[in-house]
Each structure stands twice: as C-alpha cells, then as structure tokens.
Amino acid sequence: MGESLIAVVAEGRSGRVYLDPCKVPIVSEHAWKPEQFMNQESPNLVSGRGYGFYIWADLFTDRQLAALTTFSDLLIEVREQVIEDAMTAGLMDDGVRLRDGGKGAVAYADAVVTYLAFVVDKLADYSSTICSWNSPNEQMRCTFARQAIAMTWDYAEVNPFSSSSGSWNSMLKWVCKAISHLPASGSADVRQRDARARVRESSNVMISTDPPYYDNICYADISDFFYVWLRRNLSDIWPEECATLLTPKADEIIANTYRKTSKKEAEEHFEFGMAEFMKESSVKQISDIPATIYYAYKATETTKDGKVRSTGWDTFLQAVVSSGFQVTATWPLRTERSARPNAIGASALASSIVLACRTRPKSATLVSRSEFVAALRSELPQAIKLLQSGYIAPVDLPQSTIGPGIRVFSSYAKVVEANGSSMPVSDALTIINQVLDDVLYGEESELDAETRFALAWYAQYGFKPGPFGDADSVARAKNTAVEGVVRAGVGETSGGKFRLFHRGELDENWDPTSDPRLVAWEALQHLATRLERQESLAAGLLARLGDVGDRARQLAYLLHKIASDNEWAEEALVYNGLISAWPMLQAKRPEGEQQKLPGSS
Hints:
- There is one protein chain.
- The chain is globular, with a radius of gyration of 29 Å.
- It starts with 7 loop residues before the first strand and ends in a 14-residue tail after the last helix.
- A four-stranded mixed sheet has the order 5-6-10-9.
- It contains 17 helices and 15 strands.
- Mean pLDDT is 85; it is low at 299-304, 338-350 and 592-601.
- By secondary structure, it is α+β, with helices and mostly antiparallel strands.
- The chain has three domains: 26-181, no CATH class; 290-441, no CATH class; 445-587, no CATH class.
- A hairpin with a 2-residue loop joins strand 14 and strand 15 (497-500).
C-alpha cells in the first residue's frame, strides 16, 4: 500500500488551520524497529484481516519509528542524569537496583526511567498509522480508540514536539497525573503470575478484579503493541518481566477460537479457567472482607429456541455462583467515557457493575423455582427504583438489574426445577429480565391517562399515523378519549388517522405553567428538545416542571425500553441521553424556579 498527504493541520491565532499539502521531510533511516510478528489469526489485530501488516513495525511510518526510537535511546542518557541529580539531592549511591529492593539513587533512576518508558508507550499509541483525526474536537485520536486495532485508511500523524494532543509533553502530563493519584506510601508485592496459581499459593487474600470478558477482547495479542516498546526500554531494569519476546498467551483465560481447535474447546477453556479461579478465590478470601468483582460487558446471542441470552454474563456468573460465592451487594459505577468512539451515536454501556461477594453460608437453603420467582418479585422492584433514583442510564438498567437479581439467586444453596435439576444462571437471568420488564411496565399505572395512551400508541406506531379506530380503542382502554389526547397537545387527528407529534414539531416557547392540561409525555418531549438545543434551557424547564419532571424521568425509562425493543436506535439515544444528563440538569436549575404545577402532588 502507498500513502498520500492530504492536508497539514497547524496552530493558528484562533485555532486549527488546515493547509494544502506541502513537502514533509522524508526519514529513511532509524536505528531500530519492532520486528516481532503479529498474530495474524487474532480477530483484534488490524480488524482481524491483517491488511498486509505482518510485524509490529508495519503499523508505523519511518518518521514515527525514528521519533519513537530516538526517545527510547534517550532514556539511557536520562537514567545517568537522574542518578547524578539524585545523589546531588542527598540520595546515597548503594548500587542496588529497584528490582532488588533498592532505595538509593540507582533505584530512583530505575523508577523514573520506568515511568518515562510508559510515556514512550503512550506516544506510540498516538504515533501509528492507525491513528485518526477527531474532527469535532479537532485533535488526534489514538490507536486504541477501541479495544482493538481498527484499520484506518485516512490516518493522522502527530508532531511529537508540538503542544497539541499526542505530543510528548501531552503524554508526559498524563503519566504524571496518574502518578500523582498513586498511593504515596506503603509497600506492595507485585507478581506476574497465572491468577489461579497466585491465589492458590496465598492465604487470607482480598480479591478485587475486573475479569476477562469471554471472547470479547484478545488482551495479550493487543498488549504486544506496547510490550515490544517496553521490552526494548526496560529489559535492563526489569529483565524477568521482559524475558519473553512477546507476551505469554497460551494460558490466557479467554474464549479464543483461533488458539483452540474449535469454538466448543475455546468456550470450555474459558469456563473451566474462570470456574477454577473463582473456586480458589472463594476458599482463600478473607471472611470479613467481601471480594469485589467488576464487570462491564453487553453481549447477547439468540439461541435456537429464540431466547436471548448474555453469553459473557452467563458463563461468568455461573462461575461465581458455582464456586460457593454469594453476591451480597451490587452497584453500578460510571466508568466509561460517553465520548469514547463506540459510545458516540450508540447506546453503549457507561457503567461497570461491582459485585460484592462473600462465601455462601453453609446454612443456605434449597428453594423451588416458584419460591425463587416470588422472592424476585418481592425484592427486585425496590432495587430497580433505587437504581432509577441514582439516574442509572436506561441502557445500563438491564445489566444493573442483574446484580440484585443474582444476589437473590446466589443466596440459596440451589434453586430446584420441577424435574429436580438445579437451575442454571442462564435461566435465572431470563427470569430476572422478565421481572424487570414487568416492573417497568407496571410503573405505567402511575402516569396520567393521556401519557399512558401515548405510550401504548408509540409502542405500536412510533410517530407514524395510524387508524383513528385503533386510537379510539386504545384511548378507551386507558380511560381517556382521543379528543382529550389532542387537547393535551400530544397528537392530532386528520383524514381518519391519528399520530403523535414528533419532538421537532413542538412549540419551542412552550411554558408548562400556562398549560391547562399538562401531561408527562409532553413534558418529556420538551425536555428532550431543549436538551438538544442547550443544557441551560432543559435545566430551566425541569425546574418549572416540579413533580411532573419526576414522572417524565420515569417515562423516559419506558420509552427507551420500547425504542430498544423496536431497534429505533436514534430514539433510544434521545431517552438514554436525557436520563444520563438528569443530575447535571438538576444541578443547573436556576435558584427559586422550583414550583408546583397543575397535576403536581
């Protein structure tokens, strides 16, 4: 493949300036390049197709390689300078390296160079031909904008000596910021070991882990992108950790088909490994401290019988429950950036679920399927309301609900089916999702009649027109009339048809305080349109809505569910975005504007 310069981006007086192509210095020589081979079978390496990239050096231009190797070579000089400066500052020169427990000038220099090697790695992330241009923000997008290497046909190349994103100084600031958040004191014993073996050889452990996600990410394959640079820069400082040419992969606990002879064997490798790790953890975990397990994975598949199941969750949670762990508490944490590429224009998960687990007591009882379902219906509604009160985004709600549902399931020694078999986690998850749907749709009864009509109509027709006869039937069922719905400003009738007004048709100057028939549907749609225009407009409206705003938020969860079920992606994004922005809108509400409205309680 070849390459052709399209444009040059420069710093102007009022921002970025885009210039016509000009001559750029050609670099034909560089002292070193990473010549280790990529794994061509990995689905995460260059979109899983290879595209002619065989060794890691192929991902970089000669100019990028020259810059990266130059920075790497300078680390040797930096280390000698750091030793000299440290001794001048009063540290003794005991000659003991950091890996051997040294605390003098030599060990200090090893630590500084280790951190600087991380800066080189971050610079490599912004200095490959996979990098792209983030047009809205007018800045560089790194190689790993996703947890995979996605082929980039139009790539952006950073000037490492600039003051812009992707430069050396920018990367240095990020690493310094990370260091400032590390513990300032204490000691740690860090081992590069198989997790199962590490737990097995320890006693009184405290587990806190973010486990692998089934077949979603090829962690070891991807990490080689950084490891080839780390090994070059740190082999002298950390010889044992950098002993292999590439990262170990054979025992990695993921369901990687290309490392096994079949998909079934790959799944068995993951399931057995995860179960073994969880079993060791439940035995060694300190009894008075919970194990904490993070999980953020949304992947489903439809089985032959038409059921939708979350493969990653099924397998992972089955390992947790079968190991003897009981989930005692759960809570979603906002851990993902909303501006990350896979979240832009999509309902991507924004939260990780934290499971607090303790060893299940020996006194745990057996229950029947019906008893388990009854317990779920008793406990889950309150848990869902608690999640909603925390402004959990609708896209996160199904996964967040799994936590309290599995907490009920795992509290029993076994849930027994009618045929005497033990209920698997996959069936428990199906029941949990069913109860979630029942709870969400059960909240409909708390809404006004016109909104309940609009909700039912939206589920069937969206914003498209439908027969007036159907509208009349739905209105009667919801204890209202089509005329009342029209007077409420929710929709219109024309030519024997009825349709809901789309948000874009609503009066942008609408004032809820002067609306004689205020309904939650109308309030929600106006909130959505004003949020699209300006946050302060939505915040001001929310302040004037009073308790009707709470019902509008409740409605947003229902509409997101309907839009997702109908695969109306843009509609789902609107309601998900509104709920996600709700805390911010409340914080921005103008002082003194909170008031009661007609229909408020």
